[in-house]
Design a protein that fits this description.
It contains 7 helices and 4 strands. With about 220 residues, the protein is mostly helical. The protein has one domain. It has a two-stranded antiparallel sheet. It has a two-stranded parallel ribbon with strand order 3-4. Helix 2 packs parallel to helix 4 and helix 6 packs across helix 7. It is globular. About 30% of the residues are buried.
């Protein structure tokens, strides 16, 4: 399978809903590009500043993140009149949704992958959260401006979203593998690392089968 065929398992890739430049489409639709780019940026931000912290953000930040996720879901199914459903807006709601998902998945991933995680939120204060939101907002502004018509910017954003897909599923599958194998409590050695890797690959293969033979994939746009 080509990369495009693999990505079509997780994204409808409709041309009308995908950014294009000189006839070349991005590899993911605008909303999926936003979601996976947002997750990648959010995960990287927390990995740099939150390191091995294992607690969820404070309640106010958690509810704000849930609101971003809910807002994207609302836009995708209802397209409220006060919000355009254009590609830049799809990308924008997607990037804040993806960044918000990383707020919850990153500390849980740390919790099950590391024995000595730090019992603090990866993003503990509003200044740090606003810094992340500022980065996401800056990237989303590219989709509204002529900057996206620049070949380098276009390709960079395209590749970032694909890297985001890999990081998202790798994060989910390593978490699942660590959970199933009770990795946190195991003695770490070469064989246990091989076993974890095999479990991760098994989850990737299972997801591929579920997506490839999904009878509803042509209906879920």
């Amino acid at each position: 399978m080509t990369l495009g065929e693999c990505l079509s398992l997780i994204c409808h890739r409709l041309p009308a809903r995908t950014f294009s430049l000189n006839g070349r489409l991005m590899m993911l639709c605008s909303r999926c590009s936003g979601i996976y780019t947002g997750f990648l940026v959010g995960f990287a931000f927390q990995a740099i500043f939150g390191k091995k912290r294992t607690l969820l953000p404070p309640a106010s930040i958690t509810f704000t993140g849930l609101a971003f996720i809910g807002f994207m879901a609302l836009q995708s199914v209802a397209s409220p009149a006060f919000l355009s459903n254009s590609n830049p807006w799809r990308f924008t709601t997607g990037i804040f949704c993806g960044g918000s998902v990383s707020l919850f998945l990153f500390p849980v991933w740390n919790e099950y992958l590391f024995q000595k995680g730090e019992r603090k939120p990866a993003i503990a204060t509003w200044p740090s959260y606003l810094s992340l939101l500022g980065i996401l907002c800056s990237i989303s502004l590219f989709s509204f401006s002529t900057v996206l018509k620049n070949q380098v910017v276009f390709q960079t954003l395209d590749y970032l979203s694909v890297v985001g897909v890999v990081v998202t599923y790798l994060t989910i599958n390593t978490f699942l593998a660590a959970l199933v194998s009770n990795w946190r409590e195991k003695k770490k050695n070469f064989l246990s690392l091989i076993w974890l890797g095999l479990l991760v690959l098994s989850f990737f293969f299972l997801e591929f089968l579920l997506l490839y033979f999904n009878p509803l994939k042509g209906l879920l746009l």
